[in-house]
User: What shape does this take?
Amino acid sequence: MAKRIGILTGGGDCPGLNAVIRAVVRHAHGTYGWDTVGIRYGFEGLYEEDHIDLDPHNTANLLIRGGTVLGSSNRANPFAYPLRLPDGRVEVHNVSETCLRNLEKLDLEGLIVVGGDGTQSFASRFLELGAKIVGVPKTIDNDLEATEYTIGFQTAIEVVTEALDRLHTTAESHDRIMICEVMGRYAGWIALTAGLAGGADVVLIPEIEYDVKRVVKSFHKRHSRGVSYSVVVIAEGAKPSGGKLAVEESGDATRQEKLGGAGHRLADEIRQLTDYEVRVTVLGHLQRGGTPCAYDREMATRFGVKAVDLVSAGKFGHVTALESGRVVTKPIELAVKKLKLIDPNGGLVAAARATGIELGG
Ligand code: F6P
Assistant: This one.
């Protein structure tokens, strides 16, 4: 029987996951003669023993397809797993030993875990328990310290930039303040990168608390120049000075809190200080759905190939990473220890300020 390699996709989906799966299957099969097992719904499939055989035929045409054909789950924390009891109650259990046993039964050369910080932190705990795992970083948030790039980010930027282009024309027609709330969790990469690309007038990010009076002053300045509309991008994790995160649903042991409401809160703050007409667009999961852009297809392919090579070399406990244009590897701890945030004194912020974008602080 041929040797086998495993792959799972965990956490929130993003464009480019299927392109990683395709690259892994093709390289494993074509270069090493290995079969590939796809574990379904992240670590849930490891617990439930839910997996499928992948081959170059059933993964053909995956390059352009959004989402993940393996399914994903952001409730599949094997160390705090919600188990439904026969009487309907849900109890949280540590099911990691069962997962480990099931992984051993699969007898894999190694398991490729494609995920963001949450999924990689579970991978890191399994590594401590002896599992043979390598990681591939993905998240539209681009917030993993280990790498300059995470799969999905550029597609999200394209979506937000197009939305900003569209919001500009309607803002101008109606002399309105258009607020666009974007994802990114506790980091402002999506907001600031797309804000630059989409010519936003104001960009509010978690790394810089905002003073609404400054924001309003920037609208007045534009009005005094005869420009009576403005486009504002606000990251879901942005906070007013001394204020709190806008949380839509609180988290628990099994899942992270869900952010939401920052855009509408800002609209209320602006309405209290001005009589401008304000509208809010929350882009939500549009930023995560659909076909990956060319760059995400390229990076997904390069990361997928590198991950298979890592398994072949027995270099477990590492994630693939982008550094100065090269695909390298980094210890998995770097993908989980701390988030990569925007440096308020760094180049991206400087470019925004230099081109007249108001950052609120
Ligand atoms: O981490 C990716 C992400 O899309 C964040 O930007 C966002 O806060 C979160 O996931 C949304 O999660 P869910 O899909 O559970 O609503």
User: Anything to note?
Assistant: Residues 12, 74, 116, 139-141, 183-185, 236, 258-259, 288 surround 6-O-phosphono-beta-D-fructofuranose (CB under 6 Å).
